[in-house]
Design a protein that fits this description.
Layout lengths: L1 H41 L27 E2 L4 E3 L18 E7 L1 H4 L10 H10 L4 E3 L3 E2 L7 E4 L5 H8 L3 H4 L3 E5 L2 H5 L7 H15 L4 E5 L10 H14 L8 E4 L25 H20 L53
Parallel strand pairs: 3-4, 3-6, 3-7, 7-8, 8-9
Antiparallel strand pairs: 1-2, 2-9, 5-6
Helix pairs in contact: 3-9, 4-7, 7-8
């Protein structure tokens, strides 16, 4: 009897031990499986949408930024791609430039010695390259013969857009130089939508003058108190905007020193009013516009302008004429010279 109880106790012990072992094994296996599953879930993008494992990020398209721009060493940006219009023409083949400078007082060249700002230097550089140039617009300003432009002091982007609607359909430029936006910052008006306003403006120019190329630029650095942060905001909007113009003849010229490109107007090149540069700063702008026009030519963006009776040379018929200005510029607030002591920059070589 005692022997039977002994065997029964032994069997019960072994059954209990086996059960404990089995339970322990199941717990271990479960823990391992849970750990493996968690590892798989936490591994980022272990497989693509079609099951292909490339180990890369698989962000949603909505989170992806617009494609990077093509940007030259001179800080001239275009949208991605190598688009070229079928009716492209080359400066080397004699394509004339009918240029409309668009903007506010910076385009007018206020506070520069000759009241021409960047326009006279840029025009001379282009003519020296053998390019026929006619600056066009409803206004005339500055001590030069070919001094036409479409620029109004104190105007914001939407205001210059409005002015352009009265003259662009008639003159049909094949090149627009757009430098506007600083007054949005100075007046604290529409700063958050300045880029959107510029987009509407550029679209209007391209649609209304379909053989045109648009070159717009970021705003210059500004020393008026509390203005520079808004300038930087607007400039970033412009840099994002250029990405939208894939397949369109649009270029962005970087004029602000924040991006590290050389030969941009610096704080020291800005005059006492905090907005307008000395002559040297205007000359830097001129060189950058000349380079951007050469870049537009290299990309095949330029086209022959519409034949509408306008001269190819803007000085034609004006040789005996005294240069005109539409109004006098505002007086300087200081006796500081409007020329910089910085050495003159080098001239532009033919491309």
């Amino acid at each position: 009897m005692d022997e039977k109880k002994s065997w029964s106790s032994r069997l019960s012990f072994f059954r209990t031990k086996k059960a404990i072992f089995t339970l322990t094994a199941l717990v271990i296996v479960s823990v391992v499986l849970i750990a493996l599953g968690a590892t798989h879930v936490l591994q980022p993008n272990s497989s693509g949408i079609n099951g292909d494992n490339d180990g890369g990020n698989n962000n949603n398209d909505d989170d992806q930024p617009l494609a990077d721009v093509n940007i030259t060493a001179d800080g001239i940006s275009t949208a991605p791609g190598n688009w070229k219009p079928e009716n492209s023409s080359s400066l080397a083949d004699g394509t004339p430039l009918r240029i409309m400078p668009l903007g506010a007082s910076l385009v007018r060249g206020e506070f520069s010695t000759t009241l021409t700002g960047f326009r006279e230097t840029m025009r001379k550089e282009l003519v020296d390259l053998g390019i026929p140039v006619n600056l066009v617009g409803s206004q005339r300003f500055g001590d030069m013969l070919d001094n036409d432009l479409e620029a109004y002091g104190g105007n914001r982007v939407d205001q210059i857009h409005e002015h352009s609607t009265h003259i662009v359909p008639q003159l049909q430029p094949n090149l627009f130089l757009v430098q506007v936006g600083s007054n949005n910052a100075l007046q604290k008006r529409d700063v958050n939508v300045t880029g959107a306003q510029m987009e509407d403006f550029i679209d209007y120019l391209l649609d209304t003058s379909p053989l045109s190329t648009v070159i717009f630029s970021t705003c210059l650095t500004n020393t008026v108190p509390d203005t520079e942060p808004m300038i930087l905001d607007i400039n970033q909007q412009y840099r994002e905007l250029i990405k939208k113009y894939e397949g369109k003849p649009v270029l962005l010229v970087e004029m602000h020193p924040s991006e590290g490109f050389p030969d941009r107007p610096q704080v020291a090149d800005i005059g006492p009013d905090g907005t307008h540069p000395y002559d040297y700063g205007y000359d830097l702008m001129a060189h950058l516009y000349t380079k951007s026009i050469q870049e537009a030519d290299r990309k095949g963006y330029l086209r022959w302008p519409v034949e509408n009776g306008l001269e190819k040379d803007g000085e034609a018929g004006r040789a005996d004429e005294t240069s005109a200005t539409s109004e006098l510029p505002p007086a300087t607030s200081s006796g500081v010279s409007k020329t910089s002591s910085t050495p003159a920059p080098t001239t532009i070589a033919p491309s």
